[in-house]
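Support case: NAP complex. Customer-provided input:
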Amino acid sequence: MDPSQTVQHLAAHPNYILEFTYLIAAILFVFGLKALSHPDTARRGMFLAEGGMAAAIIGTLFHQDIHFFGWIIAGLILGSLVGAAFAIWVPMTAMPQRTALSHAFGAVAAALVGIAEFVMHAGTMTLFTRSALGLEVMLGTLTTTGSLIAAGKLQDVIRGTPIQFKGQQYVNLLIFLGMVGCFGYSLYDPSATAFFFGMVALGLLFGVMLVIPIGSADMPVVMSLLNSYAGLSSAATGFVLGNNVLIIAGTLDGFSGLILSVLMCKAMNRSITNVLFGGFGAVQAASTAGAQGVMREIKLDDAAVQLRYASKVVFVPGYGLATAQAQHAVRELANALEGFGVTVKYGIHPVAGRMPGHMNVLLAEANVPYSELIEMEQINPELPTTDVAVVVGANDVVNPDARDNPTSPIAGMPIIEVDRARSVIVLKRGQGRGFSGLENPLFFKPVTHMLYGDAKATLTALTQAVQNV
Ligand code: NAP
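Agent response - structure generated as follows:
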């Protein structure tokens, strides 16, 4: 077939173009996801995934059933405007709640498609398609409200601490059983629309009830789980619509979200059930061994001398680095120290901050070389030979109680063992606690000195002071 014949053939069969672009999209998604697994290649991964999404959208425009492009163009414009506004104006510190909102958008789209399909075609669907549709709507609705509550908690619009009441788990179980019951009956009798819409209402309610008893500190795990549900809901949509790219992308999304949730739980030494039903953060006055005595302050100039004459310094960033937006300031201090021959490394805890990879993203933005970002398992053996460990707005991830106090709510959570360094300087604004709400015995240890103030301002002043030593 010569090229002109091929073009004519494709024009006569737009489905070929659609399937071909879907195949390209699926390949780009797989490679994008692979590249996202390392900071070095993460940016490329994002571009690949974006390319995949563009291919999927373009491919869909060739769908034979589309006769009117008006709604699609309106959707494209609206979606692009909202996406661009998010990208331009949402600060890095608000990234977790922004991600939760994206999940809600994805989930509501899947739920609405499912509801529309049910209204139009329920009577003619096979049992398999109806099951996929029910699953899609159930996961879509609960993910929509669950993600909105998660975003509200992270943005402090809704109380961040667990909202609990007596018998809550039984109420939740009842709602869940009601939702599944309605799903089952609408499978059995597709004309029973009341049951289908009962499932929709209970799904929306269940999303709220599932997330309100969980504290903000656990929101990243919850979001990752909800992301997984949104992905599985999209995959189910793919089965309903016979759309391959939705099945592939939804499954990739669903399972990567699930794996991420499990990895986060592992990094906190907690189970998924403990995250979902544990009400972590509700008990603020939990036992904290060794958190008595005085916190010793250090003067800026004395800290600068320690750093200037150290041979190895390890920075351990946490959530405070993100709130202070101190990533550039820490990089400048590191540059200054390296200029004096000091070896500088960054110890990265897997759940430092408020989302997975939070510290990596911030430090990459400040052009910190990836070779200096050392994961927790690798940095811990180096700490006993480290002259100064500088804790920049981290708290829970350096709390030695997790290692030393079996009764602590965070017992068993792996930590960066800064207290094994020769000297520790903690940069924080005051006596504020970490997200777990626990007091940190590290701050009372003889090896530790506190340098109070906003991390960015302190680091900038330290850089100046180091140069003047
Ligand atoms: P953290 O325990 O929340 O502590 C952050 C510390 O930063 C606070 O003690 C605060 O003390 C200080 N701070 C806040 N703003 C500051 C500023 N402008 N300048 C200087 N210091 C500032 O943070 P973390 O050590 O990174 O631990 C993360 C927590 O989130 C863990 O409990 C983890 O389990 C949880 N979590 C994270 C993820 C994730 O994916 N990353 C997932 C699930 C749970 P002051 O108020 O005194 O300044």
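Residues 283-287 have pLDDT under 50 and may be disordered.

Case will auto-close in a few days if no follow-up is received.
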